C-alpha cells in the first residue's frame, strides 16, 4: 500500500493536498503519515485528514507524530512544507531592512527576508533529509517550502533522492493570462521557463495568434493595469509576462521598490506589492486558518472536496497509475536551460510517469530574461553555500548581490544590515564562522 508523509502537517497546504490525494480515482487506500513539531496543530491536522477520509469513503489510514522517525519509514512520497521560526522572526526581517531603505512586500525568497529564512530553514531540512535517506531512501521528495529554489538546490546537493520543487504560480498565472487576454483557457498555448517565481511566458498564443500584442493593447485600460501593475509594466518593457505575483516579483528585480514614488506608482496594495504585506498579515492568516479548521471539524463550516490545482497529487497519480502527466517543476538544470547556470535549479515542464520526474529541455531564454534569473540564482548559490560551508561571509555576500538591497544600499550599509539581522536572529539560526 502507498505511504505518503507530510512534514509540516500543521501548514495550510495540508487540507488541499489531502483532498487532492483522496480524489485520485482508482487509489482507494494507503497510509498518510503526518509530522509536525507543534503537537496541537498536528492533532488538528490529524482530525482534519480523518474527516476528509470519512467524507470521501476511501480506506486510508492516518498516523501522526511529533517525532518524524516514528512514522516516515517506508514512505513512497515525502511532502515538505515546513516553516522554521517564522512567527518569531517575521517582524525582524521586515522592520530592520526597512531602516536601511529596503522595502519588502513578502520577503520569503530573496532579499534580507529570503536570506534569513534560508539560514533558518536549511539546517533543519538537512536533518530531515538525513532521516529520509535512512528510513525511506526509495521515496521521492516533493518540496513546497520557500525559498523554493534554495531548498530544492540544497536537497539536490546533499542527497541522491529525487526532489522536485512545487509551486502554483505557473498554473495560476496561465489562467490569469487567459482571462486578461479574453480567450478560453483550454485553447491557450504557452511555453514557459526560468526559475521559481521568475519563469517567463516566452510564447503565448491562441489558435496560432500571438497574444502579447493583444495584452499590450488591453493594458492601455488603467483599470486592467491596476490589477497586476508590476507584471504588466515589466511585460511592456521586457516583452514577456512573469509567473509570480506583482508583489513577489517586485522584490526580485531592482526597478520597482528603490524609491517611494515607484512604490506608490506600481506597488499598490496586497499581493500587488504593499509594504510589509506578509509581515503584517501572515500571523493573522495563520491564526484564522487554524480557527477555520476547528470550525470545519465542529461542522460549523463546510469542507470542500473539490480538487485544487496543486501538483503533488498529480505526481502521485501519474507515478502510481503510470498515466503520464505534465507539470511545471523545479529541478536541477543539467542542460535544460542552456544560458542559466548548469549547477542551479530551474523551473521547466516535466513529464511524470512511473519512472518519476522527467524534465523537458527548454533551450535558451532571451538573454535579458536569463540575466535577471542569473542574478537571483547567484543569490541562491551563495545562500545555500553559506549553510553547507557554515560560512558567515558567504551569507553576507549573498545579501550584497541581492538585486533590491543593491539598488538601495551601499556595500557598507548592506553589511551593517546583515549584521543587525544576524544578531537579532541568533536564537533561530546556527552560528556561522
TrEMBL record:
Coiled-coil ranges per UniProt: none
Sorted UniProt keywords: Carbohydrate metabolism, Glycosidase, Hydrolase, Manganese, Metal-binding, NAD
Database matches in Pfam families: Glyco_hydro_4 (PF02056), Glyco_hydro_4C (PF11975)
Residues annotated as domain Glycosyl hydrolase family 4 C-terminal: 194-404
Cofactor: Mn(2+); NAD(+)
TM region(s), chain numbering: none
Cofactor binding note of this UniProt entry: Binds 1 NAD(+) per subunit.
Similarity comment: family membership: Belongs to the glycosyl hydrolase 4 family.
PANTHER family cross-referenced by the UniProt entry: 6-PHOSPHO-BETA-GLUCOSIDASE-RELATED, ALPHA-GALACTOSIDASE
Protein name as annotated: Alpha-glucosidase/alpha-galactosidase
Protein species of origin: Paenibacillus cookii
GN (gene name): galA
